[in-house]
Write a structure and sequence with these properties.
Layout: E1 7-15, H1 19-30, E2 35-39, E3 52-54, H2 58-61, E4 71-73, E5 75-80, E6 83-89, E7 95-97, H3 100-113, E8 117-120, E9 124-130, E10 133-138, E11 142-150, H4 157-162, E12 170-179, E13 191-196, E14 202-209, E15 212-219, H5 227-237, H6 239-244, E16 252-257, E17 275-276, E18 279-281, H7 297-315, H8 323-332, H9 334-349, H10 351-360, H11 362-372, H12 378-403
Parallel strand pairs: 1-2, 1-11, 2-8, 5-13, 11-18
Antiparallel strand pairs: 3-7, 4-7, 5-6, 9-10, 10-11, 12-15, 12-16, 13-14, 14-15, 17-18
Helix pairs in contact: 1-3, 1-7, 7-8, 10-11
Length: 405
Amino acid sequence: MPLLPDLQSFDVVVVGLGPAGAAAAYECSRSGLKVLALDKGVHPRYKVCGGGLSARIDQLLGSAFQSVIEHIIYGVRFACAGADPFTIESSSPIAYMVMRDRFDHCLVERARGAGTEIRQGESAKRFTPVQDGVEIDTDQGRYRAKVLIGADGANSVVAQRLFSRRPRRCMPTLESEIDIGRSPVYPRERVVGIELGTPACGYGWIFPKNERLSVGIAEFRGPSASPRRVFSRFVQGEQGLRSMGWTIPPPQGHPLPLFNPCVLDESKPDAVELVNGRIMLIGDAAHLVDPLFGEGIYYAVKSGQLASRSAVEVVRGLSQSLEGYSRAVYREIYPEFRVASRMASILYSFPGLCHRLAHRYQEFVQLYYRVLQGHETYQTFLALAKRSVKASLSHWVPHVFRARP
């Protein structure tokens, strides 16, 4: 009978080395904890993803990722099925475009530089909660951690094994990378393309990278009858893509974890467990994805940083529980998602109307850009928008009555 490998002990074990896991590992290591990070893949590796980062990521990562930015975005070309597109630009960056293989690898190496022990090509198989920690069995070794952080994506093994009320709602997204060489950037320099209405309850995107375009679709409400048919209709409807004669490779799919507003009510069965004893879920594993446009990277990094604070407190004996992480998510992320979810319900129910209103009232789009830049939150955006509408109505109503004979 073969001998079991020796049990190696760590303060923190992170499963998954996407942006969430790499951010958590970096912060824990920087705080002096002994950290092991496991990933079933090997970096750098291709990741199906639009690769759009809202500019507010600067507040979380500073200059750590600047070397892998492919394009800086200042505006959006908005389109809606059959309607004329229009572009609204900002004087300051609203987003950065990256390729996920380079971006993720950059964050992994940052964690390694801070002292994280990185083990790639190693899959976590079993997790056993024990007193004051968790034991982890992989296909190559056995480990013990005082804290386990599950950062292994929408199909998280950690969530499946250890969280009975794990989120289950995911939608398929499709994306293709088009090699355009040194052709002019499409839709144009410093601008991304967003089209509403082609996916019935979602949007299509065109994100420019260095000598390529990321083109994809995502739906947020209800199952799509045929995502590939919707993708084909989207790219065929883009006259600029057709006229350039580019070869569009078959799209690849990946699950997009959806935020469920029921998580805000812990009495409901769909309420999400973010913490179970000495285990936390972060990023896509916890379904921390913006419900308006599906941005996950910002909230992956943010949740990784929030989780690291609780891990440090528990390891150092400053707290007996990881619930500080749950409280931080309910305080700093979920209120934002509540507002974004309401906005998404309107946007994807009435895409044509929203497209026309955005064209007419561009100041509201500029205000939303300030959310992407980190100058406003969804909550302050909503308050300012309501105040602006109220002021407009208070001016318009007396004017209408004065105009009556």
